[in-house]
């Protein structure tokens, strides 16, 4: 780490391996994802072949060590991959994001040696993961979850329902949070590794959404689902720590999703305004338009700096809680402003599905809701600065 202190690198200057990863994901996104975007949005589905291709590309197990078949990369690599995919499709970006920054991240930190051996090679090669904390009655107040886990000898019996679970349609492994001792409040919350085909576990209703439509968001049903004790992730009663520590990092990934789509919106707007002519010249010649684009570019750059800094702090093992909350909050608001401007600058065409900005405008909204709403990020920041 000392070289970083002696010679700090500009945040947006990438190392050679980072450039290689970003460029290969960008190429993949343009060649393999772009042709499918409209259809995936319309049919609210990511084809399995594309998920297989993402595994092939090496972005589904970025931080998994090579000894388990992963890419042996950094958290920052995951951020670059999510940003590059989100420029083309924020739904595909969040699929990759949840896999890396929530599911694999939690396993790398909390799984036993046996669990790592059982699950990391599969997560690196073909299994998609999902992360199930939220319920109908507990969102921002996540520790109010009511899914119960009853100790029954060599296993726990889980009963309850989860809501809003990303990747649920396609996932094979689910990290599910349940309470083993509701009287102890959050100190009863425990994380479990649940495989899709476990009896008593099923996938419920799929949500019909405003944006990131291709990303599946479903209810999970646990009806006396017997989960072996060997599948407790971390310690019994320490699930609240698993949840919070993972989400603190995960929201940097959502920041990456937001800067990817915001950057794409600005690029689309620049290209279009240079082509579209009104009053005898390209609309990009009007200073009123130029100033709007300049402000949007500045916004995206500021958001990118916050996201990259939070990710690099995390990889350096330094505190990043406030920076992660700021990056997610700011980048989601920057994405709202950038996509709204892009729709405006496309005029009537921006309001149609014939151009990509309409979808980016819909896709950005989720950034202010999941992995902690904007108000929750403000609470985290306020707590850090005020105490
Ligand atoms: C598309 C999508 C995908 C998702 N994926 C996942 C997933 O994979 N796994 C998972 O576990 N969850 C997931 N979620 C759930 C998501 O994290 C929650 O929706 C989010 O945390 C907000 O919870 P809520 O919807 O219950 O809203 P609420 O908590 O009811 O909040 C409603 C409003 O009240 C505000 N509010 C609440 N409390 C306070 C307070 N104390 N002070 C000020 N304002 C407050 C909020 O900011 C918000 O504006 C997903 C949600 C969506 C929509």
Concise description?
With 387 residues, the protein is of the alpha+beta class.
Summarize the structure in words.
- The chain has 387 residues and is an alpha+beta fold.
- The chain has helices spanning 2-6, 16-33, 37-43, 48-57, 75-86, 90-110, 113-125, 239-275, 287-315, 321-345, 357-364, 374-386, and strands spanning 129-132, 148-151, 155-166, 173-179, 189-195, 201-206, 217-228, 232-233, 277-278, 281-282.
- The protein has a four-stranded mixed beta sheet.
- It starts with a helix and ends with a helix.
- Flavin-adenine dinucleotide (FAD) is lined by residues 98, 131-134, 139-140, 164-166, 209, 217, 366, 369-371, 373, 375-376.
Lateral arrangement of strands in the main beta sheet: 1-4-5-8
For the secondary structure, the number of strands is 10
- C-alpha termini separation: 30 Å
What is the multimeric organization of the chains shown? Answer: single chain
**Which parts are unreliable, with pLDDT below 50 for 5 consecutive residues or more?**
none
* SS content category: alpha+beta
> Count of helical segments?
12
Query: What radius of gyration results from the CA coordinates?
Result: 21 Å
What do the pLDDT scores average to? Answer: 97
The proportion of residues forming helix, as a percent range, comes to: 40-55%
The largest pleated sheet is described as: 4 strands, mixed
Shape: globular
Order of helices and strands, N to C? HHHHHHHEEEEEEEEHEEHHHH
Bound molecules: flavin-adenine dinucleotide
Strand residues, percent: 5-15%
């Amino acid at each position: 780490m000392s070289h970083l202190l002696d010679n700090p690198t500009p945040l947006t200057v990438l190392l050679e391996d980072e450039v290689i990863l970003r460029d290969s994901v960008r190429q993949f996104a343009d060649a393999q994802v772009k042709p499918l975007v409209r259809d995936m949005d319309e049919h609210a589905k990511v084809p399995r072949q594309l998920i297989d291709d993402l595994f092939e590309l090496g972005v589904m197990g970025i931080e998994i060590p090579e000894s388990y078949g992963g890419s042996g990369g950094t958290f920052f690599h995951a951020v670059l991959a999510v940003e590059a995919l989100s420029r083309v499709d924020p739904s595909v970006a969040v699929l990759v994001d949840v896999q890396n920054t929530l599911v694999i991240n939690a396993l790398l930190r909390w799984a036993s040696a046996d669990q790592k051996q059982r699950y990391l090679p599969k997560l690196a090669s073909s299994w998609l993961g999902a992360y199930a904390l939220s319920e109908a009655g507990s969102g921002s107040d996540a520790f109010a979850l009511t899914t119960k886990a009853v100790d029954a000898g060599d296993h726990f019996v889980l009963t309850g329902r989860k809501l809003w679970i990303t990747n649920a349609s396609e996932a094979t492994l689910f990290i599910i949070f349940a309470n083993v001792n509701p009287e102890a409040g959050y100190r009863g919350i425990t994380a479990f590794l649940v495989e899709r085909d476990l009896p008593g576990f099923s996938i419920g209703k799929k949500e019909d959404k405003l944006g990131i439509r291709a990303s599946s968001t479903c209810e999970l049903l646990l009806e006396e689902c017997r989960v072996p004790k060997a599948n407790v992730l971390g310690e019994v009663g320490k699930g609240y720590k698993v949840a919070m520590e993972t989400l603190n990092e995960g929201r940097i990934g959502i920041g990456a999703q937001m800067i990817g789509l915001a950057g794409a919106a600005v690029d689309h707007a620049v290209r279009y305004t240079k082509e579209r002519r009104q009053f005898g010249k390209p609309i990009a010649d009007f200073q009123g338009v130029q100033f709007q684009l300049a402000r949007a570019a500045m916004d995206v750059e500021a958001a990118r700096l916050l996201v990259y800094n939070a990710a690099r702090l995390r990889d350096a093992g330094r505190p990043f809680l406030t920076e992660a909350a700021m990056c997610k909050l700011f980048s989601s608001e920057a994405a709202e402003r950038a996509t709204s401007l892009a729709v405006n600058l496309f005029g009537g065409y921006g309001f149609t599905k014939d151009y990509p900005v309409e979808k980016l405008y819909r896709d950005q909204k989720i950034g202010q809701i999941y992995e902690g709403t904007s108000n929750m990020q403000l609470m985290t920041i306020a707590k850090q600065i005020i105490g």
